[in-house]
Design a protein that fits this description.
The chain is α+β, with helices and mostly antiparallel strands and 179 residues long. It has helices at 11-29, 34-37, 43-50, 61-82, 88-101, 105-119, 152-162; strands at residues 125-134, 140-148, 167-168, 171-172. It is extended and about 70 Å long.
């Protein structure tokens, strides 16, 4: 059996690896890492901004979550279609179902697609879960879990290994909605 890590072939390689590890550690400790300099995007806030035209400020937690899920469906449809994702068929089925079953579905979803195209085009994360959680003051806060569209296939495979019940016949059924 081959070990997980092969030792470097010579002392110079070992020296370089040690130096690189020290530099990375120092950068991390002093918060100079590339990740610290990148602006972090809150996709929960982004989704809230995305569905803003649907919100009137009087929503109950359930209605707010329903509107967020509608936003997630429109968002994922746009992302999957733009990336020509292998999951486009699954996403499109849910999108078309929402168009048929939701009150003013076509109008709302068309408006959200235009909004995604014009204002949120640079964001290409695929939302895998939307729910609410209690905030610091006890009020419900929107929580979004997402994955890069490029990594969606790996995510699906990982979920299938962890909980085969979450994937039925190639359709994701993550709680509360994925597609």
């Amino acid at each position: 059996m081959k070990p997980f890590y092969d030792p470097p072939p010579n002392a110079f390689s070992a020296f370089l690896i040690l130096k690189i590890k020290r530099i990375v550690l120092l950068l991390h400790l002093h918060d100079y890492s590339i990740f610290a300099q990148m602006k972090r995007v809150s996709y929960s806030e982004l989704l809230t901004e995305f569905i803003e035209p649907l919100l009137d400020g009087q929503e109950t937690e359930t209605i707010y979550l329903d509107k967020a899920v509608i936003g997630m469906v429109a968002w994922n449809y746009h992302v999957a279609k733009s990336a020509a994702s292998p999951f486009l068929k699954n996403v499109e089925e849910v999108y078309l179902d929402f168009r048929r079953t939701k009150i003013n579905g076509p109008v709302i979803l068309d408006m959200l697609l235009k909004r995604k195209e014009t204002m949120f085009r640079k964001y290409d994360q695929f939302f895998v879960r939307v729910d609410t959680r209690p905030g610091k003051d006890g009020t419900p806060v929107l929580h979004v879990e997402y994955v890069s569209i490029d990594m969606l296939s790996f995510f699906v495979a990982e979920m299938q290994q962890r909980d085969p019940g979450d994937i039925l016949e190639g359709k994701l059924t993550l709680r509360p909605f994925l597609f």
